[in-house]
Design a protein that fits this description.
Blueprint: H1 2-8, E1 10-16, E2 23-29, E3 35-39, E4 45-48, E5 57-59, E6 66-68, H2 69-72, H3 77-86, H4 102-118, H5 123-139, H6 143-163, H7 173-186, H8 190-202, H9 208-223
Antiparallel strand pairs: 1-2, 3-4, 5-6
Helix pairs in contact: 4-5, 5-6, 6-7, 7-8, 7-9, 8-9
Protein name: DUF2225 domain-containing protein
Organism: Clostridium saccharobutylicum DSM 13864
InterPro entries: DUF2225
Length: about 220
C-alpha cells in the first residue's frame, strides 16, 4: 500500500541531457504532493509521505553527468568538455528503482557532488549538495557523517559568500549569514557562530524572521 501511495506522487519527466543530448526519463515529484511537517533551524524541511529531496538529482546514464535539478540544464560549455574528459570514461550506467530512499538519495547527491568537483562548479554548488547530503544523514541519524558533510558545506558557503554574487540558491545575504552562523553552531564553533549571527542581526535589510532565528541561535549558545 505504502509503495502505491508514493508512486501516486510521482510522474515521469523526459529530459534531454545538455552534455550529450541523449534523452532519458526521471521520476519527478508532483508539484502539489510535498506536505511540510516541520523545518529545522538550518532550513532543512521535513516532509510527510513523499520527500522531494530524494528526487532532486538528475543523472544521465549515457555520459554520467549528474546535477541537482535547478542546475542540470544550466551547464556551461567548458564544463561539458570536463564531463566528457573526467566523468564519461569512468561512468558505468546504473538503474535506480522508482521509489528512492535516504541511502539512494545520498548515492545520487554524491554523484552530483563528484560532478561538481570534477567540472569546476562554483563553491556554492558544492556547498549546497554537501548540505543536502548532511540532511540525508540526519534522517538516518548518522551524526558523524552529517557533521562531516556539514563541515564541507560550511567551508564552501564561506568561500561563496566572499566570491559569488548573491542570492545563491534562493539565499539572500541575511539568510546566508544566518545559515553560516547556524552551521558553525551545530559544528560547535560558537565564537564564529556568534559573529555570523551578529552580522545578520545588524543587517538593516534582514527580514524580521531571519533576525529572530539569529537571536534564537545566539541565546542557545549563551544558555549552553
Amino acid at each position: 500500500m505504502h509503495d502505491i501511495n508514493i508512486l501516486d506522487h510521482l510522474f515521469d519527466k523526459h529530459i534531454t541531457c545538455p552534455v550529450c543530448n541523449s534523452t532519458f526519463t526521471t521520476k519527478t515529484v508532483k508539484a502539489k504532493s510535498p506536505r511540510i511537517m516541520s523545518k529545522d533551524s538550518d532550513f532543512f524541511i521535513r516532509y510527510k509521505e513523499i520527500n522531494p529531496y530524494f528526487y532532486d538529482v538528475c543523472i544521465c546514464n549515457s555520459c554520467g553527468y549528474a546535477a541537482m535539478r535547478s542546475d542540470f540544464e544550466k551547464i556551461r560549455s567548458y564544463r561539458k568538455e570536463l564531463v566528457f574528459s573526467n566523468i564519461t570514461p569512468k561512468w558505468q550506467a546504473r538503474q535506480y528503482p522508482d521509489i528512492l530512499d535516504e541511502q539512494l538519495a545520498i548515492e545520487r547527491y554524491k554523484l552530483a557532488l563528484l560532478n561538481a568537483m570534477l567540472t569546476d562548479c562554483p563553491d556554492s554548488t558544492k556547498a549546497m549538495i554537501s548540505l543536502r547530503i548532511a540532511w540525508m544523514y540526519r534522517l538516518l541519524n548518522d551524526n558523524s557523517q552529517e557533521l562531516s558533510f556539514m563541515k564541507q558545506s560550511l567551508d564552501g558557503f564561506i568561500d561563496a559568500y566572499t566570491k559569488e554574487l548573491l542570492p545563491i540558491y534562493g539565499l539572500k545575504r541575511d539568510s546566508l549569514t544566518y545559515l553560516l552562523g547556524e552551521l558553525n553552531r551545530k559544528l560547535g564553533k560558537d565564537e564564529e557562530a556568534l559573529l555570523w549571527y551578529s552580522k545578520t542581526i545588524v543587517n538593516t535589510n534582514a527580514s524580521f524572521r531571519i533576525k529572530e532565528m539569529a537571536r534564537v541561535g545566539k541565546s542557545l549558545i549563551k544558555n549552553e
